[in-house]
Specification:
By secondary structure, the chain is of the alpha/beta class. The protein contains 24 helices and five strands. The termini are far apart.
Length: 485
């Protein structure tokens, strides 16, 4: 008598567990990985700026936002967090790591509820082992929160269009979108995606509800609207350090979300193959797949085209497309495997590729702690002045120079000046500055010299009053020494 062998599959295996247990395991595992190396690198670029202003009173934060290109939500959240847990590297990066870990829950929910268990597992694992997700989970900025809120918003959009339509879902959807636009201006692109998804479904009976929800989100922005338009106007009228994108950047962005070039090529082949199979199907592309395609393509191609006028096509702004990218990969892998036995386990091969090519500590951060110590050691006497250019590097310098002074934000600049340290803005500001001229020795520090004072106007001005001694290049910085004539 022929024995009956049990049929084992990922679906039947996961089916033995409740969704609650699965998402708890996914969250715990992701959070554990995100906490690894959390404080391995010093704070960098905009992180010290974020921490410096987040610790301030709300009056000071409000003044800062008038010249800041990001909405206030992340600063407000960090304000309360810093008051409770301090400003250590681990503390201020803990929240971004938490937001990143929470995102995997909603990646799984979207995959499982609107596609299949296989898609849910594949896309969740792709997200977990993405180097870009590790990097921005270790970045004390709003980007991991932006990705989380974008994913939650799309999840509730699909619930309202496909599944439950009760009041609580409308509340969560409206609240999430409000938080989204108060997190980052890229949030408006996600709302535009949602509007296109709704229109593509052509369910006019629901348009009234969505119109009310989006109107409430828009009205909630009224207190911030004047600042929003002012920042957009000023940003478009000024030069930016971001370069206009090339066609090759379309590939580069996907490479950043795929760990390695060879993985990117494999992913692109499957994306095109899967899309081709969708087109060949006689049935209309289902709503959830259409939503993922629009969520991926509108920010991806839209920001590329916008960047011809206003360069915005950079990794952190496009991080929101990584989620539909992973879900589409999982969905297309399952679709291809259903057409050919040779590709039966393709949906498991993708996560394996990401696992094998990931780096759990991919942060691309300069050693600012060593930089500050190096500059600090050059100030050997009270008659030596340190000039920091550009002035936006001052919070980074201050964080590693003296944390007590960093926390005394109302007097930090005057205390720096009293210690012979002067943040410099433009050349015109340097010319007007008189206080540093009383010093006998000048240490002129340039962060990112290719972008800041690359014509050496500041250095040439200093040479008119001091004897130039030498310039040291270290950590992508330049440190010039000058003595009094």
């Amino acid at each position: 008598m022929e024995s009956i062998r049990p049929q084992l599959s990922l679906t039947s295996f996961i089916g033995r567990f409740r969704d609650t247990k699965i998402v708890m395991l996914l969250f715990a595992f992701t959070f554990f990985l995100r906490l690894l190396y959390l404080d391995y690198y010093p704070l960098n670029i905009d992180e010290p700026f974020t921490v410096f202003y987040s610790q301030m009173s709300f009056d000071h934060i409000g003044e800062m936002l008038k010249t800041e290109n990001n909405p206030p939500l992340f600063f407000v959240i960090m304000h309360f967090w810093i008051n409770a847990f301090g400003i250590s590297e681990f503390s201020v990066r803990f929240l971004p790591a938490l937001f990143s870990a929470l995102t995997v829950v909603f990646v799984y929910f979207i995959g499982n509820k609107f596609f299949s268990v296989k898609v849910a597992v594949a896309s969740a694992v792709l997200f977990i082992f993405s180097e870009s997700q590790f990097e921005f989970a270790h970045d004390c900025r709003a980007y991991s929160l932006l990705v989380l809120l974008s994913t939650i918003s799309i999840y509730f959009l699909l619930k309202l269009l496909i599944l439950e339509k009760d009041r609580i879902n409308w509340i969560f959807f409206g609240l999430c979108n409000t938080l989204l636009v108060y997190t980052h201006f890229i949030g408006w692109i996600i709302i535009f995606v949602e509007i296109v998804v709704i229109i593509s479904e052509v369910r006019f009976s629901k348009l009234k509800h969505f119109a009310v929800s989006f109107t409430i989100t828009l009205l909630s922005l009224i207190p911030y609207l004047s600042i929003f338009f002012k920042r957009v106007t000023e940003t478009t009228s000024k030069d930016t350090w971001v370069q206009k994108p090339q066609l090759s950047d379309l590939y580069s962005r996907l490479w950043e979300y795929s760990n390695k070039p060879v993985v990117t090529v494999v992913f692109l082949i499957v994306l095109f193959a899967g899309f081709g199979l969708l087109i060949k199907q006689k049935n209309k592309i289902d709503l959830q797949t259409r939503a993922m395609l629009l969520w991926f393509l509108i920010p991806y191609l839209g920001l590329f085209l916008i960047s011809m006028k206003l360069p915005l096509f950079i990794e952190r702004y496009l991080l929101v497309i990584s989620i539909p990218f992973y879900i589409l990969l999982g969905s297309f892998a399952v679709l291809i495997s259903s057409k050919s036995k040779a590709f039966r386990f393709l949906y498991l091969f993708f996560p394996l590729l990401m696992l094998l090519t990931t780096n759990l500590n991919p942060s691309r951060i300069r050693p600012n702690k060593q930089i500050v110590y190096l500059v600090q050691n050059m100030k050997r006497t009270p008659t030596t002045a340190i000039l920091i250019n550009p002035d936006w590097y001052a919070p980074t310098f201050l964080y590693y120079y003296d944390k007590e002074m960093f926390c005394d934000y109302s007097h930090s600049t005057e205390k720096l000046n009293a210690n012979g340290i002067f943040p410099l803005g433009s050349y015109e500001e340097l010319v007007k500055q008189e206080e540093f001229k009383k010093y006998n020795r000048i240490v002129y520090f340039q962060s990112n010299p290719n972008l800041v004072d690359f014509e050496n106007r500041n250095l040439n001005f200093l040479k008119s009053s001091f004897n130039y001694i030498s310039t040291v290049k270290a950590f992508n910085c330049k440190i010039s020494i000058l003595n009094r004539n």
